[in-house]
Amino acid sequence: MKHPFQLKNVALLMVLAVAWPLQVQALAGIAQFTAGEVNVRQADGRITALAKGGNIDSGHAIVTGGDGRAQVRFTDGGLVSLQPNTEFRIASYVDQNNPREDRFLVDLLRGSMRAITGLIGKRNRDNYKLTTTTATIGIRGSGFKVGYNPDGSLGITSELDKIEVCNQSGCIGLVAGESVKVLDNVTPPVRTSEQPKVATPDTRKEPVVAGDKVDDAGKAKIVTEKAATTTTTTTTTTTTNTTTTQPVERTFTDIKVATVGVNSGSPHTLSTGAGATTVFSDNKLLKLQDTSANTPKWSEAGTAQPVTSFKSVGNVSDANFIGWGMWTTGQKEDPSVLSLANVHYVAGRPTAQAELSSLFYTGVANYTLLGNTAPTQNGVAGTLNSATFSVNFQTGYAITVAINTSFGNFTDSASGSTPSFNGTYIQGMFVGTNAAYAGLTYARNPGAGMITGAVVFKK
Question: How is 168-227 classified by DSSP, letter by letter?
Answer without folding.
Answer: TTEEEEE-TT-EEEE-SSSSPPEEESPPP--PPPPP-PPPPEEEEEE-TTSSEEEP-PPP
